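@channel sequence for tomorrow's demo:
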Amino acid sequence: MDEPDPTTYVIAATRAPFPQHGIGADAPAAASTARAPERTHAWLHVVSGHAPEVIARGAFELAARFLARRHRVLIVDAGPRLHLHRRFARESRWGVVECLTGTLPVLGLVQDTGRLGLYLLAYGTPTRVTQWPQLGRLLDEAKQCFSRVVLAFETDAPEEIGAALAGRHLEGWWAGDAPGDRRRERLVGRIGVPLEALAADTLPRATLDQMDQRLWALAADHAIREALKAMDERDAPVVTAAPPARPPASDEPPGFAAPRVAAAPPAPAPAEPATMGCDPRVRERLRFLLWMRRLGSEGADAPRPVPVRRSAREPVGAGDRT
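structure tokens (generated this afternoon):
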């Protein structure tokens, strides 16, 4: 039996696997963007579009792509009319506005979305004047805890947002198919960030259920691609190392081995004289013993008296008489 073509599995993985939620099993997923957001090394991704619904779908699409690569994602709602908190059934009492004023930290206002690795920073309570120049500080705080940050704003975003984004490693995306939209051109000229096209029709609606389906499809596609890559690496031909080069031929007959001269061992380095310490009492005792030994040697060299031999019959003291 012929082996199946592995490309058919890749095509099948790009189809939505759950038809009961409005996405048919035979409906192919939308073509991927020319530049995949998940393959870039930028930690900050800004997204906008011609309508709040399209912007929300673009933010969900970016989040699904990053979650499929096991990133920790934070969605920042920087538009007063986006209302992204409603799509997660969360509160909007505190959020970006309060962080920009410096009254509350970012981590204190981040909300859990109910999905592993995905968090939301709502817009907050609208004010007459928003401190957009402090957006850079907000992003720096978020970067310490999240590997990917999705910043969503509308087409009428102020120029202060572009000034806060200057000099940062980021990617810009325009959700929806509107290549000739003048609002996109005006927004790019205002914030100074080029916006590439991002397919927003991959999600019919910006809901958590639709994002879950998109996430599972992306994760399955990524797993199949990794499996095919591992199979290609396993079936790749093994490159063997070249044999070692033979030594040049010599004029000596075969079997002749030149005598080896053993190298003389290196001369040991002269040891430095060791300096030893001594207790004064021990030194005095050694001097005393040396003096006693000297006295003993001098006494041994002195002439000794010769003893007088006496006969056994001669009484003691007889020789002393005069």
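heads up for whoever presents: Confidence is low (pLDDT under 50) at residues 1-33.
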